[in-house]
């Protein structure tokens, strides 16, 4: 995971941002069409693999298409994908593209309507441009630094009341529940809040940006899992913190994305759960 500077995010050339948004939007629309045409239609990865590690032909097809287009349009900007062997992006890259072709592959394979395509242009301060395709809801969510968030072209901005949502999202790790997850769920329930584990880190964070849930808590993640959705969240007015309560757009130590009014309370549940488990 790339360590980001704690300094405020810097402005980026408006021309680059505009072109990046346009290209990313086209790729998201392409991905949405492919996912909807193939989801749940007998695509089965190696049965010996964990569902958390599945890679389908659709993942590979969308990765190749995304790489081809981005390399042609932005030849000087490296592209990092979930299914490649590149690992996390080097810290000395001025910009990088990060893509998750199908976030929620187990859901996609089963035909469950909860998966996404995520693409983000990132610099050392965090996402510059983020686009998420939500195929089953026919939605393309897009954001750019300082330009706000849009859902199918309509502006989205969190309001104060959206911090009162009775739902928080989280996701399991590749090996199962994260340390303290049971305690976190119990604490939230006592406070009258339900915790949902739906199978897509990207869409979990996007729900906060859209105002559907109060917060999303991720014990661990890769940059490509969430960078597109974090861009949405930041531009919609959400708070982004690590498990210590420190702000960074892509924290190294866990991720809490929350409506401003809910951030402190959900953070306290998370921290308390981690202390109990330890």
TrEMBL record:
The keyword Metal-binding applies. The keyword Thylakoid does not apply. Coiled coil: none annotated. PROSITE patterns: IMP_1 (PS00629). InterPro entries: Inositol_monoP_metal-BS, Inositol_monophosphatase-like. It holds the Pfam family Inositol_P. Keywords: Hydrolase, Magnesium, Metal-binding. It comes from the Bacteria. This is Myo-inositol-monophosphatase.
């Amino acid at each position: 995971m790339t360590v980001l500077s704690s300094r405020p995010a810097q402005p980026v050339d408006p021309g680059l941002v505009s072109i990046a948004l346009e290209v990313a939007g086209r790729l998201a629309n392409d991905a949405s069409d492919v996912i909807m045409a193939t989801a749940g239609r007998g695509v089965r990865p190696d049965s010996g693999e964990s569902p958390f590690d599945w890679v389908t032909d659709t993942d590979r097809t969308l990765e190749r298409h995304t790489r081809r287009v981005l390399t042609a349009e932005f030849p000087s900007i490296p592209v990092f994908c979930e299914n490649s062997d590149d690992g996390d992006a080097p810290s000395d890259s001025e910009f990088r593209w990060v893509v998750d072709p199908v976030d929620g592959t187990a859901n996609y394979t089963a035909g469950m309507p909860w998966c996404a395509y995520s693409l983000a242009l990132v610099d050392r301060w965090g996402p510059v441009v983020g686009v998420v395709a939500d195929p089953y809801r026919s939605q393309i969510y897009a954001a750019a630094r300082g330009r706000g968030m849009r859902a199918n072209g309509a502006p989205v901005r969190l309001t104060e009341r959206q911090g009162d949502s009775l739902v928080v999202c989280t996701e399991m790790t590749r090996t199962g529940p994260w340390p303290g997850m049971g305690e976190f769920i119990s604490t939230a329930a006592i406070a009258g809040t339900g915790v949902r584990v739906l199978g897509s880190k990207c869409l979990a964070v996007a729900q906060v940006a859209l105002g559907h849930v109060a917060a999303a808590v991720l014990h661990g993640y890769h940059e490509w899992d969430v960078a597109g959705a974090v861009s949405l969240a930041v531009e919609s007015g959400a708070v982004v913190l690590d498990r210590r309560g420190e702000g960074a757009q892509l924290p190294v130590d866990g991720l809490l994305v929350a409506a401003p009014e809910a951030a402190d309370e959900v953070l306290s549940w998370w921290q308390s759960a981690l202390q109990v488990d330890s």
